[in-house]
Amino acid sequence: MGTRFSCMPSNNKKSIRNSSRRMTKPLRTSSNRYSSDTKASRLEEELLWLYQQHMRLERSSSMRQPAQASKQRVSRSASARARQSSDPIVQPLQLLKKEGTALNAYTKHIVLVHGGGFGAWCWYKLVASLEEEGFIVHALDLTGSGIDSTDPNDISTIELYVEPLTAYMESVSEADKVMLVGHDFGGVCISFVMEKFPQKIAKSVFVSATMVTNGQSASDIFSAENSQVFIYKHGKNQSPTSIELKRDALKELLFNQSPAKDIALASLSIRPMPFAPVVEKLSLTPENYGTVPRYYIETTEDRALTMAVQQRMIKVNPPNKVYRLKGSDHSPFLSKPQALLKLLLEISQIKPTV
């Protein structure tokens, strides 16, 4: 067909254009007006016009996108061309896929509680992923952490330290139970809140976190490190007011498996942690704290809260279930965000026992 079209005389172009304008109107099919030969001729003219339009578009496309550019497979919007029969048809259920995980979850509201010295910033990867899955996610800065302007040296109790979390929990209705996720010293913080608001918490998750028992403090679990620096706001003849890690020890202890960019972010964002809450002992009762299901996520490459310490806590205070994140350092939200996301999605879909 191509050979035949290419050999047609050039003086037929005008008639072709005229016929193309006539072809925009419906063809009359009455045998009284048109013979079969006329129909065949008109059909041939229409096909010729369509072919020429196709070739014109091909030449235009080649000029806009040279061969070298086409090899790079430059992506373009689907709106740039008409839909073809080979294009996949997206079903409505596929469009709702991201919301499906949350829709199938028993817990759709997740509260993320950072560890000592960290802030809400540390959850940035997880917040984005959970929201894409359709969850309601709230990551907050505890007092003196993240962008909160309070001086960590002025925080004298754990109640003051977790005040942003308790204030948020007070705004939550009992019908909208949350899943608390605590990291590091955030484990102590969510334990404090579990005792205070058990009826508003569907389940709690300890991510490489301090999981204390009644009458225990975080300092009973953490051992003193040479990399720790104590700050004495009121003089060294008084108790320390805050504590922090030496900057050159951050990567080794907290981020030994994390990407370099995230380590840089953490190094600029991490702050001293108030000392008083670390040594304060918690009062936890079976009637409140004990009614909230607990889940623990171990981190195998953790050098801040080693596997031995994590497993000792688990043995003394057994949770409902233990998960393990292989290859994760103390900060799995940076080093293993997708693996952590997968575990949290699984936990969110666990059916409540009551």
Automatic annotation (TrEMBL):
Composition-biased stretches (Basic residues): 14-25
Record has Hydrolase as a keyword: yes
Compositionally biased spans, kind Low complexity: 67-86
Residue ranges with Polar residues bias: 27-38
PANTHER family associated with the record: METHYLESTERASE 11, CHLOROPLASTIC-RELATED, METHYLESTERASE FAMILY MEMBER
InterPro entries, per the entry: AB_hydrolase_1, AB_hydrolase_fold, MES/HNL
Gene3D superfamilies: alpha/beta hydrolase
One Pfam short name: Abhydrolase_6
Name of the protein: AB hydrolase-1 domain-containing protein
Stretches for region Disordered: 1-39, 60-86
GO molecular function, one term: methyl jasmonate esterase activity
UniProt KW keywords: Hydrolase
Domain AB hydrolase-1: 110-341
GO biological process, one term: jasmonic acid metabolic process
